[in-house]
Design brief:
Blueprint lengths: L1 H17 L11 H8 L1 H23 L1 H22 L7 H17 L1
Length: 109
């Protein structure tokens, strides 16, 4: 459940990052173009993803520690997206492989 919550936070943060008007987007993927053209829908989807991840983490960890853990994850993931996204060094394949490995490790351990 933690890996799924991290993935939801990542996608929600990714959507919010790409809906900003100050970000220069290169439209490498069709989803980036769609996000820029449909900003309101993208923001609603991002907020829903973030709320679902918050609810999932609160159910897993409890109210207080869940909210604190969610804030910690948000801070970490948003910082990484803001720092790494302009460089375009991290690809979507690398992120997919990372989350797949984390999901397998979560199920094994």
């Amino acid at each position: 459940m933690i890996t799924v919550s991290i993935l939801l936070i990542f996608f929600g943060s990714f959507l919010l990052y790409h809906t900003s008007k100050m970000v220069l987007i290169s439209y490498d993927l069709p989803i980036e173009k769609w996000i820029q053209l449909n900003r309101v829908i993208s923001k609603v989807i991002a907020i829903v993803l973030l709320l679902v991840s918050l609810i999932t983490i609160v159910i897993s960890f409890g109210r207080t520690s869940g909210v604190l853990f969610w804030f910690f994850l948000m801070l970490m993931i948003l910082g990484l997206i803001i720092i790494m996204a302009p460089f375009k060094k991290v690809t979507y394949k690398q992120v997919s492989i990372l989350f797949l490995v984390l999901l397998i490790l979560e199920f094994i351990l």
